[in-house]
Specification:
371 residues, alpha+beta, conserved putative lor/sdh protein from methanococcus maripaludis s2 fold, Elongation Factor Tu (Ef-tu), domain 3, six-stranded antiparallel sheet, 3 helices, elongated
Length: 371
């Protein structure tokens, strides 16, 4: 039996096994020589100071420029009714007629007397100019004409109080009036809400805040639509603070456009406070919360160009969307870890995954930023 092939194969296998152990030993020796240094992959960014305006959120009440409680001055029975609940009426339109037939008859009599007396006065003037009538007779006739004119004016005023017209274009409130219904004097009939291309929003600020200047813009959002923002401008400021709340009342003007608002509607208002200032803004995810406070990781390079993390405590200010203002602990131009900062610890080596970018306040205006 020939054992040479078996011997040859066995020798080759032995050589291969010995070689693999040698390579593995060399790798282990190499790693031990390099050192077992831990690291983490993160995204980084430079930060800079940006212009920032602080705001506070308060509530405001929308007001129509023209609002009227419709009240009848004279008592009487409703003879005609043109009011439609929720409908629109235009300036000068007749809304309600209260029975006034008696006043109309008296007015007709007064006008007849006036016309007759007016003819008499003209004739008396002609006679007086030809010295056929005394001055006293002319004066008495003229006085009687003025009396009849006064009666016409009085009756016309009484009728006007019983024919109620719209003082301005408005939307009519809901009412329960009926033809034939007797109305006592000073009955609250309904509401008229003026229709204009603008509305007011009233709000108040505590005395601890600086008084807002006229034309200062404020931002409105609806309770059922926090995404749509409506710009209003301060139009007037109350001359004194409320003696109960020590707050100063403001009124801002809203240009409506396609926006639908209702009088007395509650809205949220973002009001600027203080002056614009330069602050450092960073992504909120770059902040690590610890037992001793909040901190970020600075990324510094050593002499060999390797990047290491350094934990730095910071003080947080206002948060806007995905950004947070840093009031202390961070200077402009610093390189910090953003995405992946939670994987770092003090002194850990960091590998940067991205090209360096700079945060900007425009990020807070992006539709992708949540408030």
């Amino acid at each position: 039996m020939n054992f040479i092939p078996w011997i040859t194969t066995t020798g080759i296998l032995a050589i291969l096994i010995a070689g693999s152990f040698a390579v593995k030993s060399n790798i282990i020796d190499a790693r031990s020589n390099i050192g077992n240094e831990q690291s983490a992959n993160v995204e980084a960014m430079y930060v800079e100071k940006v212009a920032h305006q602080s705001h506070i959120d308060i509530s405001g009440i929308v007001k129509a420029p023209k609002t009227l409680s419709l009240i009848n001055e004279s008592a009487g029975k409703v003879t005609k009714l043109y009011l439609q609940s929720g409908g629109i009426t235009y300036a000068g339109d007749t809304l309600i007629e209260i029975e006034h037939e008696e006043e109309k008859a008296q007015l007709q009599i007064a006008k007849s007397r006036f016309e007759l007396q007016n003819t008499t006065v003209k004739r008396y003037k002609s006679l007086y100019n030809s010295n056929k009538l005394s001055a006293q007779q002319l004066d008495e006739s003229t006085a009687l004409l003025a009396q009849y004119q006064a009666e016409i004016n009085l009756l016309s005023a009484k009728i006007a109080k019983k024919v109620i017209t719209a003082p301005f274009t408005a939307r009519v409130g809901i009412h329960d009036l009926q033809v034939g219904q007797f109305l006592p004097a000073n009955t609250n009939l309904t509401q008229l809400i003026g229709i204009e291309k603008y509305m007011w929003v009233d709000f108040s600020l505590p005395q601890t805040y600086t008084e807002l200047a006229i034309n200062t813009p404020v931002v409105l959002t609806l309770l059922d639509d926090t995404q749509t923002e409506i710009i209003a401008q301060v139009a007037s400021v109350a001359p004194e603070m409320s003696k109960h709340s020590r707050q100063l009342k403001y009124r801002a003007k809203i240009t409506l456009g396609n926006t639908k608002l209702n009088s007395n509607q509650l809205v949220k208002i973002k009001v600027p406070i203080g002056n614009k200032k330069e602050v450092v803004a960073i992504p909120y995810l770059a902040v690590i919360k610890g037992k001793l406070g909040n901190y970020v990781y600075l990324l510094n390079k050593d002499e060999e160009g390797k990047t290491y993390a350094k934990r730095t405590q910071v003080e947080l200010g206002e948060r806007i969307g995905d950004l947070v203002m840093i009031t202390n602990g961070l200077t402009s131009g610093a390189l910090i870890a953003s995405h992946g900062a939670f994987k770092l610890r003090d002194g850990l080596r960091a590998y940067l995954l991205n090209s360096e970018r700079t945060v900007a306040m425009e990020d807070t205006l992006s539709p992708k930023v949540s408030l």
